[in-house]
Fold this sequence. Notes:
The protein is built from 16 helices and 12 strands. It has 398 residues and is an alpha+beta fold. The strands form 3 sheets. A 5-stranded mixed sheet has the order 5-6-1-7-8. Strands 9-12-10-11 form a 4-stranded antiparallel sheet.
Amino acid sequence: xxxxxxxxxxxxxxxxxxxxxxxxxxxxxxxxxxxxxxxxxxxxxxxxxxxxxxxxxxxxxxxxxxxxxxxxxxxxxxxxxxxxxxxxxxxxxxxxxxxxxxxxxxxxxxxxxxxxxxxxxxxxxxxxxxxxxxxxxxxxxxxxxxxxxxxxxxxxxxxxxxxxxxxxxxxxxxxxxxxxxxxxxxxxxxxxxxxxxxxxxxxxxxxxxxxxxxxxxxxxxxxxxxxxxxxxxxxxxxxxxxxxxxxxxxxxxxxxxxxxxxxxxxxxxxxxxxxxxxxxxxxxxxxxxxxxxxxxxxxxxxxxxxxxxxxxxxxxxxxxxxxxxxxxxxxxxxxxxxxxxxxxxxxxxxxxxxxxxxxxxxxxxxxxxxxxxxxxxxxxxxxxxxxxxxxxxxxxxx
Length: 398
Ligand SMILES: [Mg+2]
């Protein structure tokens, strides 16, 4: 069985934990309205007002004038994320993080030692509450698709188990848009065909769905029957690590696109270094307001785990993609692939790249200084959490 564990209102809950006087007040973690900031996370008291993550902070304040806006403390959330991961590791090494606050765990091999997957899920939920004073929602199911649906079923503080014989009964009443991969556009198309729930969808034949949706149709057909063969892949076995985010409102603000990409890459690179991996290829994904999607990659001639180098490469890709025309971006994704577990030439390679990127650089070995900065920042994240070493807006500017 697979567990999907998802922290409830993660950043906001961590802030409430750090300062209990905030509890119950509507608050968000995110950028200031005056800086065209965006909400990263909203607590449940704020959600009552319609405040959501990825919404411009200015709009959130219009919805809820008493809203408390707390600046993002990325390093703190990284540290808490590590504490959560340490609890997962008591039960299984097969952990696939989806973000700082969400992961799949394969506990199939752990049942002899720790009890049924349901018991393991309950123990993890309990330990997160007892030891970290935070609340997680847990889904337990035969595969990833179902486990993720299950964890979302009863949020916040949810615990939902879907046994193999209960799969169809669990899925059938759900609205079609709960199926992985069904976005707004597909949902409209399905609804127009009179398909509102999973059971409606299941009555279609595979070939009907295929002719309406192509390749996606075949996936939908499998998913609506609860079939999903994807395995839980740990970071060190993964072929790529990436993160993406959808803007609450399409944005034409290049600064905002760049700063969101940088924060996505900080998490990507942190995961890369945690897994002792280096990557050669940097990937960027941009979805525009009309849902057209562009992906671009650049392969370096060496592998790296340096946030600085990966960010500079991504920034160049953003420039090439968005630089020359009017754009309204709906979603941005960034990541790395083409992993390598390392060889002697890397440091040299990094120095070469740095000299190319910054031809005015002094004779100081910049690459190793940069590596030291990453290591220092990771170490501070591990030990103290509260550092202010986050790369600010000063870094994107050259
Ligand atoms: Mg969450």
